[in-house]
TrEMBL record:
Record-stated family: Belongs to the glycosyltransferase 92 family.
Molecular function GO terms recorded: glycosyltransferase activity
Protein name: Glycosyltransferase family 92 protein
TM helices/strands, residue ranges: 26-44
Membrane topology: Single-pass membrane protein
GO cellular component terms given for this protein: cytoplasm; membrane
Xref: Pfam families: Glyco_transf_92
Entry annotated with the keyword Transmembrane helix: yes
InterPro entries documented for this protein: Glyco_transf_92
EC number in record: 2.4.1.-
Length: 461
């Protein structure tokens, strides 16, 4: 909490006498300072409040619990991200998600902190994900079995099977311990969107605000964003969404540990790991959501998974689930909406967003017809508990069936910043589906930009 240093002014008992002897200007200054102090004290955001640590029972490994999202594993080249209870695979209890160096995989041993004592070690099973796109580091699951009678709270990995001093190792808390037997209807959220990897000085504020407000109108409850870095105005917008609770910012300092690639193919783009570790964050987000969200959408911020026959995602999913009851993964077709060909005369009265960085998604109304003769990528709506491993455009390991959703039911409105192709107009379709939400969307966008103090008053027409 912010402490006002001028409070001692009140303690000085002879202050009235003192004031009398001071010149008017000093009195004014003093009063102004007091006023400022008061305002500051009242306005200090809640982030300054001390965060009480969750206090569980005292545990044998409390000395070095990792508070980081990326934790280097001692004596190896690997990075650990998080540990989740996962008993869907026979003989295993725990899945540790990590980023492993492919050319230096060695045997590992799971070491547990049980309530009150340290366990014996159990052998770990290392499962590299099949998608590595040629990069030296790959998303890797380490599967562990909890020893008998151990009520495990934390886990770490050792390079030798011998029990060791707990203080030398980074302990990961074990999450999702309540997933077993949990009913889908009781979950906190219906829809979570996982936005993997914000990086560079990305500052497309208008696109972010419009897209996040669009997600809200479609029924999304939580947007998880893995943040390596971003531009100053976008930072302000996201802080504001994060205070509100709609956005969950996960720090993702991958550049402190590796040389992350900005591309998806090692032979073309170089670097240590695919696209700032996108494959790892997508998997992490699915596990993070498993206990609390009925559905998870894996898409980028320049994409909106848009129902064309339903008013929102829940009515869409209710229909799809009725038609395809055993389906855990729904594939949604990508459709690009290039910006260049926007026709002003068709736009109607869209507001001018003077001074707000970024572009207006509402002007992307021309849809490219995809060439279905070549590979055509999808994005995913999944039930997290049906998925074990995922990639960007498809899941790698799952239970249940997959269904390709027809594009007239749901498709992606994809408004990229730059569009490589410039197809002739007769190959484009006018699609103003976004405008159906305009009357609700635009006031909400104005509100959120005002809240983050990103909108100049003269632009609110
Ligand atoms: C686990 O606990 C049960 C009951 O207290 C005991 O009989 C058993 O020997 C224990 N097993 C191990 C491996 O400690
Ligand atoms: C593991 O790494 C941490 C942090 O770098 C260090 O403090 C600790 O002593 C290391 N432990 C071992 C066993 O090397
Ligand atoms: C994103 O990460 C950068 C770098 O750590 C940080 O400066 C910024 O405040 C973060 N933004 C949010 C909204 O968390
Ligand atoms: C723009 O819209 C107007 C009126 O609807 C139409 O006459 C014109 O052909 C359109 N131009 C393009 C490039 O779509
Ligand atoms: C999406 O589809 C368009 C064609 O509609 C294609 O040109 C583009 O490369 C695709 N984008 C991605 C990221 O798959």
């Amino acid at each position: 909490m912010f402490r006002c240093p001028l409070r001692i002014g009140f303690i000085y008992t002879g202050w009235m006498e003192l004031l009398k002897h001071l010149k008017k200007t000093y009195v004014l200054l003093f009063i102004t300072a007091l006023f400022l102090c008061l305002v500051l004290t009242l306005k200090m955001p809640s982030t300054y409040k001390s965060n009480p640590k969750p206090s569980g029972p005292p545990s044998a490994c409390s000395m070095r619990i990792s508070e980081q999202t990326i934790t280097p594993l001692n004596n190896t080249k690997h990075l650990l991200v998080s540990a989740y209870m996962d008993q869907r695979v026979k003989d295993f209890d725990i899945r540790i998600i990590g980023i492993f160096r492919r050319d230096s995989i060695q045997p590992l041993h799971c070491f547990f902190c049980c309530a009150g004592y340290l366990s014996e070690t159990t052998p770990a099973t290392i499962l590299q994900h099949p998608d590595n796109f040629g990069f030296p580091f790959v998303t890797t699951d380490v599967m562990c079995q909890i020893p008998q009678n151990c009520s495990a709270t934390h886990v770490t990995l050792l390079t030798t099977p011998d029990k060791q001093s707990p203080s030398n190792h980074p302990w990961l808390p074990i999450r999702n311990k309540d997933t077993v037997g949990q009913k889908e209807e009781n979950m906190q959220f219906d829809f979570t969107i996982c936005i993997s990897n914000l990086f560079g000085d990305y500052n497309n504020v208008l696109q972010f605000a419009q897209t996040l407000e669009m997600y809200k109108l479609l029924g999304v409850n939580r947007v998880v964003i893995y943040n390596t870095s971003c531009g100053p105005e976008l930072d302000r917008l996201l802080q504001s969404y994060s205070d509100e609770g709609f956005v969950e910012m996960v720090p993702w300092p991958i550049d402190k540990h590796l040389n992350p690639s900005r591309g998806w193919l090692h032979s073309e783009h170089g670097g240590d790991v695919h696209y700032f570790g996108q494959l790892t964050t997508l998997n992490e987000c699915i596990y993070r959501s498993m206990e609390r969200s009925r559905y998870v959408l894996l898409n980028d911020i320049d994409e909106i998974l848009m129902p064309y026959q339903h008013k929102d995602l829940m009515s869409l999913m209710n229909t799809l689930r009725n038609q395809h009851p055993n389906t855990g993964v729904f594939l949604i077709e990508n459709h690009t909406y290039p910006k260049k060909l926007f026709n002003q005369s068709k736009s109607g009265p869209l507001p001018q967003w003077n001074g707000v960085p970024g572009f207006d998604i509402m002007v992307h109304i021309y849809r490219e017809e995809p060439n279905r003769n070549i590979y055509h990528p999808h994005k995913l709506i999944v039930q997290p508990r049906a998925v074990q491993q995922t990639s960007v455009h498809d899941v790698l390991k799952m239970s249940g069936a997959k269904f390709k959703v027809p594009p007239d039911v749901c498709r992606i409105i994809h408004s990229p910043i730059s569009t490589p192709t410039n197809p002739p107009l007769d190959q484009l379709h006018v699609d103003t589906r976004l405008w159906d939400f305009k009357d609700k969307l635009l006031p909400n966008v104005i509100k959120v930009l005002q809240r983050a103090e990103l909108l100049r008053s003269e632009t609110q027409n």
